[in-house]
Amino acid sequence: MRALSYAYLVAIFAFIFLPVVVLVLFSFQAGRLPVPPFDGPSLKWYAEVLADRGLMEALRNSLFVALISSTIALTLGFLAAQGLARVHLPGSVIMRGLLIAPMTVSYLIIALGLLSMFNVIGVRPSLWATGVGHVVINLPLCFAILFAAMGDHQKNAERAARDLGASELQVVALVTAPMLKPALLAAFFLSVTFSWDEFIIAFLLTRFDVTLPVEIWSMLRSGLSPATNAIGSLVFLVSIAILIILELTVFRKPKS
Fold it and tell me: Which CATH number fits domain 60-223: 3.40.800.20, 3.30.450.30, 1.10.3720.10, 3.40.50.1100?
C-alpha cells in the first residue's frame, strides 16, 4: 500500500513538472528547433535572449505593470476588506458579492469591456491601461484573501489599541497590518504572479510597449525556437529563487 502511495506521488509530481523539465532541457538545444534529438548543451539561446533589447524591454514592462498594479490592488483590497469586515453596512453582502464578481468573469470579457470604455473616454492602449485591467482582476483576489483572514482576535486587538489612545491610522499601521502580514504578502505575490502571466488583457490594451507574454506570443507566431524555451526557463528559475528566498525569510516560522 505504501509503495502504491509513493508511486502515485511520483506520478503526480511527474505530471506537474515534466513539461517544465522538457522546457528547461531544450532551452540548451544547440539546434534551431526545441525538439528531439537533444543537441547540446549550449548557452547561445540564453545569450541571444539577454542581448535582445525588445525582450528586455518587455521584461521591464511586465515587472513595472505587475508591481504597480499589485500594489494598488492590494491597497484597495485591504481598505475594502477592512471596511466591510469592521463596519456593518446595509447591503454589505451585496457589496462583497460585487467586489468578488470579477473573479467569475472571463478575462476576455473584462478586456473587451475595458477596451470599449477606454475608447469612449479617449484613453489609448498603453501599459497604464493594462495596469488598470490588472487591478480589476487582482483587486477581488486581494479582497477575498484579506477578508477571510480578518477574525475576531484582530478586532479585539484593534479595540484594545483604540482604548489605549491609538488613532485609526495607528491602529491600521501598527496592529491590523502586522497581524495580517502573511495574508498581505500572499495576496501581493499572487497578484504579481497573475499580472506577470496575464496575456489577454495585455494583448488588447497595449500597442507598442508590450509585456513579456505578448512579446513571447509574437515570437511564437514565427514558429518554435529554443529562445522561447530560454525565456520560459529564466522566468521559471527567477520565480523559484524568489519563492525560496521568501520561504527562508518572510514565511519561515520562528523556532519555539
Answer: 1.10.3720.10
Kindly report the backbone phi and psi dihedral angles of residue 90, in degrees, each rounded to the nearest multiple of 5, phi listed first. -60, 130
Domain ranges (residues) in the chain:
1-42+226-256, 60-223
Distance (Å, rounded) from C-alpha 1 to C-alpha 5? Answer: 6
What DSSP designation does 180 have?
T
Tell me the Ramachandran region of residue 144: left when phi exceeds 0, alpha when psi lies from -120 to 50, beta otherwise.
alpha
Confidence of residue 256 (pLDDT cuts 50, 70, 90): low
Q: Sign of the CA dihedral 207, 106, 192, 218?
A: negative
CB-CB contact of 252 with 36 (8 Å) = no
Amino acid at 20: V
Grade residue 72 by pLDDT with cuts at 50, 70 and 90: very high
Distance CA 12, CA 212 (A): 29
Distance CA 130, CA 115 (A): 10
3-state secondary structure of 22: helix
DSSP letter at 222 equals T
- By the 8 A CB rule, do 239 and 189 touch? no
Three-state secondary structure call for residue 3: helix
CA dihedral sign of residues 67, 112, 123, 54: positive
State percent of the chain over pLDDT 70: 96
Q: Are the beta carbons of 38 and 29 closer than 8 angstroms? A: yes
